[in-house]
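Case study.
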Amino acid sequence: MAAQSVTTRVPGDVTSADAIVQTRGLTKHYGAIVAVDNLNLTVRRGEIYGFLGPNGAGKTTTLRMLLGLIRPTSGTSVVAGAAPGSPESLARIGAIVETPAFYPYMSGYDNLRLLAIYCGVPLKRVGAALDQVELTPRARHKFSTYSMGMKQRLGIAAALIKEPELLILDEPTNGLDPQGMADVRNLIIELGKGDRTVLVSSHLLGEVEQMCTMIGVIQKGKFVAEGTIDELRGAATLTVRADPAETAMRVLSDEVGADSVRVLADGAFSLKVDLKRTAELNRKLVSSGADVTELRASERSLEDVFIELTGAEAGL
Amino acid sequence: MIRAFIGEMFKTVRRPAVWVCIVVLLAVAVTIGYAIPWLIYSHPPSGSSQGLPPGTSLADFKVTLYPPNFVRLTLQQWSVLGGVFALIVGVLLQGSEYGWATIKTLYIQRSGRLAMLAGKVGALAVVVLVLVLALFAVDAAASTFIALIEGQSLSYPDATTTAKALAAMYLIFGFWSLLGLVLATLFRQSAMAIGLGLAYALVIEALIFGLTASLAPNVVNPIRQWFPLTNATWLANSFGQARIRGFQTATPAPYADPTHDVFVLGVYVLAFAVIAAWQLRRRDVTS
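After joint prediction, the assembly is written out as follows.
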């Protein structure tokens, strides 16, 4: 597994003013089980940060620690400028943790009114939040009659009611049909525009790929990689097949350096090279007397990276 | 904390289960406390005078249903049985938060955990007050109705006695409701909390002391005086017994000092609140 080295942001990379979430050595043990292991997570203001990992990787435990629902065994965190779970921190955070939980005997509207009372925000925010998730037509119906998609949207409305600086969304598309997933995805992209930060956990690669500007991959409680999608995918490669192979090897080594040329099992060459040089390399090979039979650019998908890092199938 | 209290009241008054508890207790109080006894005393089955003092009949018991006795009857009948309803309300208010996983929704709002608990205890105090006032009100109404039917004069206990009885019942129901709340907090669910609460109310304390008191009263009674049901019953009994023709007034129990009863119940109420707060503060929310 994990052929790629772990590259996460180091504390010095991001100033305190830039970071809205910063953890240092965050660890959670449940007896002998290590759910989260020495996690250094930094989320910058304005990012849509994808927290990616297979089921049981420690995503939810980490998010619960950031919200003060779970106490860490060791390590420290600052979330929205204060200690996790403190009123100062919570006042600036909106969150969904796993399945949204509301009072089934009350309507969606009353559930949000209740949260508005708890948070001390004006009741007019309730209507605005419901409009934002397009739930107004069913707002007066009991929560117990809602579909999974409606419950999820009510959860997002609840997270928005405080107009938070930071949204923490744990698997927000869980249980949704494809249309519902697309709607929530688009909503999150909209919400992430401007200064608002979104920290969204998921085990669905496509979802993260479409929404997030930064991705952290966690496996067995540890960070295994962090970066933009392009950084995680790494450089593209160029596959070359030419005859005679010795001539091709010499030309390619001269042009891109021997370290960047790898001979594959089937005799083809894999080159780490800027793909803009493809035509130039083709000309050099032909002019040196090599017959080029294959010239193909290949890019690793995020799924390839994810499987390589976690040993898990994407979306499982 | 004020926001938490208002929020708790907002959802409590909208919760049908809370109203069902109140209405069922009131219906049971009128039915079992007044309607059925009145029917039995008015139409006694044949041979029902057996075992009663000479010259006494079941009809003489009607006096217990008249307004002068409604305060002591309410206290003595419902300090335990009515307390069970208060226990259920306490369990419902806290246990359902775990059942619906709304505890995590609560704790990621603005207030801290202790403020949320204080709000919940405040709302519970209001519901219990409503329960106590409503119970005394329907019993007063039922006794008035029976007195009118029987052509009896309408005289009621004095205001001081009534106020003391309301306060005593409020303390007793407060104990029960907080027992429910703390059990629901400890077990993080409603079913176990209600089951254990009922077992304690109806079986455990009564059975233990019922069996052992006859064997070694000198050992058991000093211990018993620190147990909640005993003190709740003694506090209720401290308001005296109804005078029924042909019967002696009951002798007070050996430790039936109302001050002692209030102190013991008050300690339990405080202890339950502290235990609930301690548990809520230290525990992870994983539901």
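Observations recorded in class. Confidence is low (pLDDT under 50) at residues 1-5 of chain A. Residues 178-191 of chain A form the longest helix (14 residues). We will return to this complex in the next lecture.
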